[in-house]
Amino acid sequence: MTDITINTITAAPRSSAWSRGFAHFRYVMTSNPVTLLAFVMLAAMILIAVFGPALVPHDPLATAADKALKPPSLQHWFGTDQLGRDVFSRVIVATRLDLLISVSAVALSFFVGVAMGACAGYWGGWFDKLSGRLLDTIMAFPLFVLAMGIVAAAGNTIQNIVIATAIINLPFYARVARAEVSIRRNAGYVQAARLSGNSELRILIEKILPNTLPPMMVQLSLNMGWAILNAAGLSFIGLGVRPPTAEWGIMVAEGANFIVSGEWWLALFPGAALMLAVFTFNLLGDGLRDLVDPQRRT
Amino acid sequence: MGSLGLILARVLQAVPTLFGIVVVTFLLTRALPGDPAAYFAGAAATPESIAEIRAQLGTDQPLPLQFVRYLKDLGSGNLGQSVSTGQPVASELLRRLPASLELTLTALLISVSVAIPLGVLAAVRQDTWIDQLCRFVVTAGVSLPTFFTGLLLVYVFYFLLGWAPAPLGRLDMLHITPPPVTGFLVIDSLIAREWSTAWSALKQLLLPSITLALFTLAPIARMTRASMLQALASEYLRTARAAGLSSSRVLMVYAFRNALLPVVTTLGMVFSFTLGANVLVEKVFAWPGIGSFAIEALVVSDYAAVQGFVLSMAVLFVLLNLVIDTLYTLIDPRVRIDG
Amino acid sequence: MSAPLHNPPLLAVRDLCVEFATRKGPVTAVRAVNLQVAKGETLGIVGESGSGKSVTSYAVMRILDRAGRIVSGGIEFGGMQLHSADEAMMSDLRGREISMIFQNPRAALNPIRQVGKQIEDVLIRHAQATHDQAKQKAIEALEKVRIRDAAKRYHAYPFELSGGMCQRVVIAIALACRPQLLIADEPTTGLDVTTQKAVMELVRELTRSEGMSTLLITHDLGLAGEYCDRIVVMEKGEVIEQQDTAGLFTAPAHPYTRRLIRSTPHSAATVRDLLPEDLRTPDLRTPLPPAAAVSAEPLLEVRDLVKVFESPPSLIQRLRGKSDAGYRAVDGISFSIARGESVGLVGESGCGKSTTSAMVMRLLDATSGSIRFKGQELTAVSAAAFASTPQRRELQMVFQDPHESLNPRATAAQSIADPLRRLEGMTDGAAIRNRVEELATQVGLPPDLLDRLPHQLSGGQKARVGIARAISTRPELLILDEPTAALDVSVQAVVLNLLADLKAAFGMSYLFVSHDLEVVRLLCDRVIVMRAGSIVEAGPTAQVLSNPQAEYTRELLSAIPRPAHLPGHAGRQAPAVIAGAA
Predict the structure, then answer these.
(1) What is the largest CA-CA distance in chain A?
(2) Do C453 and A189 touch (CB under 8 A)?
């Protein structure tokens, strides 16, 4: 017997998962120029982080008193700072450190948060109550203030900046994961998977978690931007990264003293780099969701 | 259940949260690197004098006892001594709190009164220039580091245009601080009929609060637009239109009131961001609030001051959230029954 | 056109075309539609999902959403040209001259505004009341739609009212200003059958007493047949037939109409009768094989089954030291299913039938009671651990919503293969693929669709995937939880036949959970009627349906729309007419 609607759909060709995945990537990229732009910017940022330090025209730490506070020129594209260091080289070199801090902080809180939220959402019970209480306590603080407190107490190191940023990001992932898992806990296809003899753990990991990826991806990319802002904010107020290390937040902080006397380039370029990085991650969110969402596949 | 009972229940629910906050700040105090006793005793201290100070501070006792002592201190309003100023932390914070509150509340007022109309207009005129503007403001708003926006505004409006005063605190040298009533300089000088002082204070306040407002604008506008769009696409709105209700009534009574609910919920998160960003803005504008106090304390490792700051910010945040919950209870009938 | 034309029609739609702007360009939703509604007439528009019936009514009201646009054609209402009217004029007409009621009444009301206020809004808008009288008039409107205690209900919020009550409020809003035309868009979808009947009777009575015209939009031919004077049948955006009701049922002109009439279950049809002639494949022309002999030995025995849902006590309750007794969803029921038997479990929403099936399927732990399957006690193993017991492969289920029951990230083949891997222990990819293709053939799913994701399949195809998955382990008991509730009638007909064939072929036992007595009658040997967690009546299907003992069963049966013209009491004579016409 046939179905009335069968004839209206042409059969999809069978092809390998990889080539289908690539075709989907290309489809998402070409259907939305903003996503394409975001991915290009991300690729550029990663390239700069990897190869930047080897390619910069000047030593980011080399001081030269005679060349202090020079405005942008052909030789120093972004000018020089109060110690005569090349701002362009410092902005480029800082990319690696800034990305490293935020990526490791977000990765840390993503994995811990998803594991915590998924277990809480799937099994509920005492673990749900306990983790919920913990997250509520974290969220009861203004998050940036809590990060300040943690870094101040645990010690002023980059490692602690990463941990503090991870802790204040944790509730976002854990809550989204919990909500997304718990609405699917008794979905039809999950019940069907139970009837098919899957163990509870397998259902959670193989059937539910992949379906929560689209909303998690949006959260991931938004938080990446936010994590960069937080880490930079901490170093702006003098926590974490110490001079003379090149880092965007601390460079803006150093440049702040010269804004009132008109030397704008010290703060502008690292600030703009920071903004661009955050902007990239914010744009990335929707594209990432389209990439991992099977409903978008044609 | 009446609204009053529900509000009371919310207040009760805040108690465990407050307890959690106290536990965390206590743990942060104990996680201090090194020995605070050695720090207080100074470089030339002998082991005996360090032990003596340790006994004085109570850090030689087991943690639970220390916690009880910490609770007792908190109960009597004692947050410890600030090393850098030599004053009790509590009185330092209280003295600076009005400055921070004036900045934060002004910023929230600005951002709410811009963001909500912007979000509503963007949703009603979807895909027109105002929607694009809203999208731009939202994306830029979440991408801009507050301290960077602040510096840009200072450069443009102070250095280049000369419209704004120097970013150096709440009042320039030429004016005398009016007698404190509310602690908010603009209001206090209006009460004291010091018009020029009020004008000067307002000018000082404008740039930092706009900086802060720009940062909080984005989440509110984004949520307003999204929830307004959802309300506009809802079935009850279709019913209202099918009943021929005027478009202003459909928009305000049916769409906007419903759209407001998720916005109010977002405000909690916005407060969290605002209080955090407040610290950065205070540093940029040398604003003498509790944020700059904390930064100064951080620089000189004045831990009691930092912990006091974290604790008071958290308590402030809990209070603001209580206000939001109360507001929500008043506008959503469903909460009143569910309890 | 057989409309009475001696006086001009109240509403005339001429060559209406509606387009929707989509990302892939404009899509025509309604194409050259012509229809008329005379004064005092009730016209039905019948069609399956996507037929354009709702879009037509939204176009008349001019409340198409932003993407929709009237491309050409005219809408004339009482001498006014609605298609070209400006928004101010339309807004005056809506609610005063033309009103509309919708499906899903709870969502159709503003959730945070008192229902009385929502009626007042309309009264004041159309100057039917001043601010002083508004409240009184709103209460009168509530009384008119038979809401008891209207003065008190005036202050209620929609979430405090039942679905049927909400629909009454929506009707009160629609009729508050005594319009000339009422458009009812699937007004009973989502409501229980007994509520459906009450709502439809109310609409009929109120519109008749005011001499209003009604446009009833529905997917349910039976409903249209009972309440409409004339019926317009739509398919894929076009009107394919319109006739007075009697004529449509006795001499349908268009093959699609005939198919639709055929697939609507009614009391004289067998499951085979539902299938359209042209869709019958050779194996389905054959009559059903005689039902496998029902053995006396029970396959499943349920005794005193109870499920209590505890709600966690609220803070206030904890402070007062009180807690709820809990909600008894299933309140001590007992029944059994013999090997090869098919039993229907019928009741309205909230009666506990789905909870019962979830407990029998071991997806949910019972509070107390016993479930014995082939003599073994199933409740000894908790629901969470049941996946690893040998009985798992013998108890399977087909879910209510074919879309929601398929993992959005798994292809049809992966979904069907899942039980083969986990329960049958198959590991060889090629062997699994062979078995999956075999199963697909058995359920009539073309094997080239197996590599599609759920959203690339139609509703009927998804239903087949779900069935293939459920029968892949050759279960002895299959629970069918409203397997066709989410499907159009023509697809339902095909799926019901498939289920009947599979049962005959594999000798399975069915527990068929449904709210629809007509569908249960087609497939089941025995039927159990549930209400509020208890069994009110049980017995052989023919006996329960023809001679119900319980008052509630009678109520359920009388609530089923029974158009006089549908071949119900007339026996098998009417289908012969259809066959002759075809």
Answers:
(1) 88
(2) no
CB C469 within 8 A of CB A192: yes
Cβ distance A192 to C384 less than 8 Å, yes or no, reads no
C341: left (phi over 0), alpha (psi -120 to 50) or beta: beta
- What ipTM was assigned to the predicted interfaces of this complex? 0.86
The residue of chain B nearest to residue A234, with distances taken between CA atoms, is B280
Burial class (CB in 10 A: 0-12, 13-18, 19+), C312: exposed
CATH of the domain at C303: 3.40.50.300
- Domain ranges for chain A: 104-234
Strands of the sheet with C230-235, listed across from one edge: C98-101, C181-185, C213-218, C42-46, C230-235, C238-244
Over residues C377-407, the pLDDT tens digits come to 999 888 888 888 888 999 999 998 888 899 9
Measure B26 CA to nearest chain C CA, in Å: 28
Q: Which of C552, C578, C574 is nearest to C194 (CA)?
A: C552
Which structural domain, as residue segments, surrounds residue B187? 96-291
**What pLDDT does residue C315 have?**
53
Q: What is the CATH number of domain A104-234?
A: 1.10.3720.10
Whole-model pTM: value is 0.82
How many structural domains are present in chain B?
A: 2
C-contacting residues in A 3-22 (Cβ below 8 Å): 3-6, 9, 11-12, 14
Distances (CA, A) of C275 to B31, B241, C270, C505: 76, 42, 10, 19
The answer to whether the CB atoms of B299 and A238 lie below 8 A apart is yes
Residue B257 sits in the same domain as residue B166:
yes
| Mean pLDDT, residues C315-324 taken together | 54
The C-alpha of B271 sits at a distance from chain A's nearest C-alpha, in angstroms, of 8
Give me A116's structure tokens.
Answer: 């915590």
Which residue in the set C392, C408, C490 is minimally distant from A4, CB to CB?
C490
Residues of A in Cβ contact (< 8 Å) with C498:
1
C552 vs B141 pLDDT, higher one: C552
Q: Are A263 and B151 in contact (CB under 8 A)?
A: no
Instruction: State the Cα–Cα distance between residues C350 and C530, nearest whole angstrom.
Output: 10
Cβ separation of C99 and B234 shorter than 8 Å? no
Residue B89: inside a domain, yes or no? no
Residue C367: closest CA among C382, C384, C350: C382
- Shortest Cα–Cα distance, C268 to chain B (Å): 39
CB proximity B202 to A under 8 Å: no
Please judge whether A195 and C407 are an interchain contact, meaning their C-beta atoms are less than 8 angstroms apart. no
Query: Alpha-carbon distance B79 to B98, whole Å?
Result: 18
